[in-house]
Amino acid sequence: MLDKPLKPFSLLIKPVGSRCNLNCDYCFYLGTDESLGGPRPAVMPVEVLERLCEDFLGYGFPTSVFTWQGGEPTLAGLDFYRKAVETQMRFGRGGQAVANALQTNALLIDHEWADFLARYRFLVGVSLDGPPELHDSHRKDRRGKPTFDRVMQGIAHLREAGVEFNILCMITSLSQSRGRGIYRFLVAGGFTHLQFIPCAEYDPATGAPSPLNVSPAGYGRFMCDIFDEWYNAGDTHRISVRTFDAIVGRLAGAPQLSLCNFGDRCDHYLVVEKDGGVYPCDFFVEKKYALGNLMQSSLAGLFQSDRERSFSRLKCSYPDLCLRCPHLDLCFGGCPKDRLSAGGGRFGKPSYLCEGLKIFFEHTRGKFQELADSVNQSAIPGAAPAKGRSAAVSGAASGRNAPCPCGSGKKYKHCCLRK
User: Fold this and answer.
1) What are the start-end ranges of the E strands in 252-303?
2) pLDDT (tens digit per residue) in 192-235
3) pLDDT digit string, tens, across residues 267-317
4) Cβ distance 275 to 41 under 8 Å?
5) Strand (E) or helix (H) holding 124
6) Tell me: the pLDDT tens digits for 150-168?
7) Pairing, β 277-279 against β 269-272
8) Record: fold of 10-371
9) Stronger pLDDT, 5 or 363, i.e. the higher one
10) Phi, psi of 67, deg, nearest 5
């Protein structure tokens, strides 16, 4: 029996754990399997998959979101995902909305994979760090070979099949001064949904930042450069940058649809490892943060457990500098892992990226507020669209694949986005 109404949450599922066919220089997840210890399967067993689907779909959320990630989740094999979809259909209720997302390096994507992903409407995230010289500098395969051309071939298969996909681009010390060029490269390549992720990793023994990390100020300048290209080129109507969407959404009054690192609490999703182990966050898949195992406990029970609540509240332990910051209402201190590492294992210091976030917000906040105001104006019945309003901007408050705020039960892109 749950002790309070259940807030909807999503699942981030690791069907092969940290196993991957790449050996990216900056990967924080390699070796996670070994650190968790004990006998662990190569791929999530059928009984764990069935338990996961039966339990999660039983809550009847407006949209039940399954995000498949790794390591490299395609290593589970296409038959695993056929089984996953069949299991979702078996345990889902009539008319229940189910969304699947897959984060991949795209090396294994061929015609068969792409046709499957298109048929079942998976939203795919593809990791691409920009032009070949940047991408191949860090994203090599297990033999040390470059991967850019193979990634582009996988993307070609996705496009041919009509799969919806986003591009995820890592910002490193090598790329931090090339924001404008990276943005132009991606847009020229026809990519319209982008996410830029700061490389912010640390030596687990000393807490020292990795030499591959984007510098705090470099991160701020990079995001300012991306924003200027996006805004000044008039791309607000056609290019979705996830961080920008999240900020416009929060300023427009839809904070529940923000990125988790810009949320006020860490209670958006649960991580499910291949053995059924459940953790509160992708960056905290460690024994000391384990919530339990779905084979012995319900997902709802783990989500509402004291351990999860304690973890969620950690983000609210702001240092004094955050409490005095005019941008706390946007970043809420940033991702806790960046505060934990910067604080030497404690939450007493601001995020490693704090300086960069301030640079970015001070440069862009006024224009973001104008975009948010246009979203709110367009939501007023009978109001004329604000000049320059676009699908990308007006959809920012909810996200194109999120449930429509009007309550219709449809995705935003199939409902009010078209009005």
Assistant:
1) 269-272, 277-279, 292-293
2) 999 999 999 988 777 788 999 999 999 999 999 999 999 999 99
3) 889 999 999 999 999 989 999 999 999 999 999 999 999 999 988 888 888
4) yes
5) strand 123-127
6) 999 999 999 999 999 999 9
7) antiparallel
8) TIM Barrel (3.20.20)
9) 363
10) -110, 120
Catalogue the active-site residues. Answer: 282
Interatomic CA distance for residues 30 and 158, integer angstroms:
26
Amino acid at 177: S
Q: Per-domain residue ranges for the chain?
A: 10-371
Torsion sign, CA atoms 79, 80, 82, 83 = positive
3 state DSSP class of 252: coil
Q: What is the dihedral of CA 103, 107, 112, 116, to 10 degrees?
A: 0
What is the C-alpha separation between 76 and 333, in angstroms, rounded? 36
Q: Are 157 and 114 in contact (CB under 8 A)?
A: yes
β 193-198/64-68 pair status: unpaired
Distances from the Cα of 269 to the Cαs of 129, 260, 278, 386, in angstroms? 26, 9, 10, 35
> Which ranges constitute the DSSP H helices of 162-305?
179-188, 216-232, 242-251, 299-303
278 phi/psi in degrees, rounded to 5? -120, 135
Task: Give the HSE-up count for residue 22: Cα atoms under 13 Å, Cβ half-sphere.
Answer: 29
| Cis before 71? omega within 30 | yes
| C-beta of residue 209 within 8 angstroms of C-beta of residue 200 | yes
Three-state secondary structure along 133-201?
A: HHHHHHCEECCCCECHHHHHHHHHHHHHHCCCEEEEEEEECCCCCCHHHHHHHHHHCCCCEEEEEECCC
Q: Rounded to the nearest 10 degrees, how much is the dihedral formed by the CA atoms of 325, 328, 334, 340?
A: 60
Neighbours of 188 (CB within 10 A): 8
Cα(34)–Cα(11) distance, integer angstroms: 23
pLDDT tens digits, 89-121: 999 988 889 999 999 999 999 999 999 999 999
Token pair of 411 as six digits? 């995705």
Q: Which residues contact 120 (CB under 8 A, 6 or more apart)?
A: 85, 100
